[in-house]
Design a protein that fits this description.
Elements: E1 2-5, E2 26-32, E3 35-41, E4 44-47, E5 65-67, E6 74-76, E7 81-86, H1 90-93, H2 104-123, E8 126-132, H3 136-140, H4 144-149, E9 154-157, E10 163-164, H5 176-183, E11 203-205, E12 214-216, E13 222-224, H6 240-250, E14 258-262, H7 274-282, E15 286-292, H8 294-307, E16 311-320, H9 325-339, E17 341-343, H10 345-358
Parallel strand pairs: 4-6, 7-8, 7-15, 8-14, 15-16, 16-17
Antiparallel strand pairs: 1-2, 2-3, 3-4, 5-6, 9-10, 9-11, 12-13
Length: 359
């Protein structure tokens, strides 16, 4: 790591210290141009804005966000930052499929709607909605490991041989919160004949692309749930409030929201994906991660982004999972100490407000 002098006058990047100035503490250059950070030791701070060489000017508080994290504060530039919202889709969040209204995923959605999305909009941070959206070709080429991971989607098998829409429940307990909601009568499935010996609903496990069937909505109407996590289906769409936020963002004249399909738990797997192509085209370097599930699709995307050289910041309260608490603890521990940083929506909001007030 090279040591660099801090430029004390960020408004004039070319101006050096004069002879009467006190020596400035040094900064360390981590990485290599064009992909690098700067670290200040006192107070500890990581600058992720990639200020231009050879002077590497300190970023102006009028155009950068100082974000507190669970470890070391970071400075990010809105112009090269994106808020990546992962899998906030009906299949994972809708109460009509047995997802608890007060579950972790829906709580994360509220944090996004009330805090993170408005903060991002104020400073021009790009918002990417990275969602499952499969094609028949992708289903045909899906590896068995991914198919197995989604061995929980199915419909309830009735004695009348009819099938009724019901929440997806992982055979190995990944989405146990939905199962418990069902057993409490949350989806009107409580007949003892419909339960197995271990107390879970009897199911036909059919996999990605299988038909969900008709789903009864809050107003009493019904909708075709569509094939599981296929593009342009109800189950792969956003819940109403989040969809309204996306639609608003999609119509912005500058830096509109974008919807990017993914076909694995990670949206950045392999040599290239639609998401990696977009990030590279737009010159985006720093990623704020949100969505569900923290330890699965969010965590998988974040780890791939880390491996490929993007800056990774997990907004922990904008993420949720149905897994046990230790799963979230593991992701947050590793993200804070290895993959990047862990912050929250209020810290983002505070950093944004400070930037706006500095103008």
């Amino acid at each position: 790591m090279a040591s660099l002098p801090i430029n004390p006058n960020p408004s004039d990047p070319g101006k050096d210290l004069d002879d009467n100035s006190s020596p400035s503490p040094s900064r360390s250059l981590i990485g290599k141009v064009p992909n690098y950070w700067l670290h200040s030791p006192s107070p500890p701070l990581f600058d992720l804005t990639r200020p231009l060489p050879p002077t590497f000017p300190v970023p102006s508080p009028k155009s950068s966000i100082t974000l507190s994290t669970t470890t070391t504060p970071v400075i990010i530039s809105p112009s090269i930052t994106a808020l990546v919202i992962i899998d906030m889709q009906n299949f994972f969040l809708s109460t009509r499929l047995g997802r608890p209204a007060d579950g972790a995923g829906n709580k994360a959605g509220q944090c996004l709607l009330e805090t993170a999305i408005p903060a991002a909009r104020k400073t021009g941070i790009r918002i990417i909605w990275l969602n499952w959206g499969l094609t028949d070709e992708e289903i045909a080429e899906m590896p068995p490991s991914t198919r197995r991971a989604f061995g929980f989607e199915a419909a309830l098998k009735k004695e009348s041989k009819e099938e009724e829409a019901a929440p997806a429940i992982d055979a190995h307990g990944v989405n146990q919160a939905a199962a418990e909601h069902v057993l409490e009568g949350g989806n009107k499935i409580s007949d003892v004949k419909e339960l197995t010996e271990n107390g879970k609903p009897t199911r036909l496990y059919r996999g990605l692309g299988s038909e969900i069937g008709q789903v009864e909505l809050e107003d009493g109407s019904s909708v075709d749930g569509g094939r599981l996590l296929m593009r342009d289906t109800w189950n792969a769409s956003l819940p109403p409030a989040l969809n309204e936020a996306y639609t608003t963002g999609q119509n912005l004249p500058v830096k509109p929201d974008v919807w990017i399909h993914k076909n694995r738990m990670s949206g950045l797997w392999g040599s290239k994906t639609l998401c990696t192509d977009f990030l590279e085209l737009e010159g985006i370097k720093s990623l704020l991660f949100a969505g569900v599930n923290t330890d699965q699709c969010v965590g998988g995307s974040l780890q791939d982004a880390f491996t490929k050289g993007w800056d990774c910041i997990l907004l922990k309260d904008a993420c949720g999972t149905t897994s046990p608490g230790f799963a979230t603890d593991c992701v947050e521990f590793n993200c804070a100490r290895t993959w990047g940083f862990v912050s929250d929506c209020k810290s983002l909001e505070k950093g944004v407000d400070e930037m706006i007030n500095a103008c």
